Amino acid sequence: MSNDRVRVRGLSIFRPIIYGNTAIVLTEKERQTLPHADHTHKWTVAVRSAASAANSDIVGGADDISHFIKRVTFKLHDTYPNPSRNIDKPPFEVSETGWGEFEIQIRITFVPESGEKAMTLYHHLKLHPWAAAGEPEIPPLDVAIKLGPVHSWQYDEVVFNDPFQNFLNTLTAHPPT
């Protein structure tokens, strides 16, 4: 047996990720160009590295995570065409338009050399800003558009316990920033 397929016992190594979404309110002109006139927001749901690039508006994504993530499957609401979206290369994200919030199942499949089972996460798609006490829960669109993008992100750490030696070598060759 090759030493590469031997597990390194007693060792844990982790990689920080974020998952979540960013949403913006569409202008009246943008809504008129869509096939669904009732869609009010454009949103992107993603799995990214936790580190953000300098001088970037994008939350996370500074590090390449494809050396340990093979595929991310986003299970959208059944009203979307092809609601199960497989993303096999970075960026691991899906962008759509819509009008309502719903729960998205996120299944992360790791590279085969990891020897790890897939991981499932759940994220509530957030379109509307968090309301302060006494304000309406969902502001009118003309107010929401002035507030700018809505961000809803979760930090997590993917922990690999007793990794295979070859996979450990890959992870240590690509440290997070």
UniProtKB/TrEMBL annotation:
InterPro entries, sorted: YEAST_sf, YEATS, YEATS_dom
One biological process term in Gene Ontology: chromatin organization
Residues annotated as signal peptide: none
Domain YEATS: 7-174
Pfam families according to UniProt: YEATS
Main location as per UniProt: nucleus
Location of this chain's protein in the cell: Nucleus; Cytoplasm
GO cellular component, one term: cytoplasm
Keyword DNA damage set for record: yes
Keywords of the record: Activator, Chromatin regulator, Coiled coil, Cytoplasm, DNA damage, DNA repair, Nucleus, Transcription, Transcription regulation
Presence of the UniProt keyword Membrane in the record: no
Protein function: Component of the SWR1 complex which mediates the ATP-dependent exchange of histone H2A for an H2A variant leading to transcriptional regulation of selected genes by chromatin remodeling. Component of the NuA4 histone acetyltransferase complex which is involved in transcriptional activation of selected genes principally by acetylation of nucleosomal histones H4 and H2A. The NuA4 complex is also involved in DNA repair. Yaf9 may also be required for viability in conditions in which the structural integrity of the spindle is compromised.
Entry note about domains: The coiled-coil domain is required for assembly into the NuA4 complex.
Summary of subunit composition and partner proteins: Component of the SWR1 chromatin-remodeling complex and of the NuA4 histone acetyltransferase complex.
PANTHER family (UniProt xref): YEATS DOMAIN (PTHR23195)
UniProt protein name: Protein AF-9 homolog
Organism expressing this protein natively: Macrolepiota fuliginosa MF-IS2
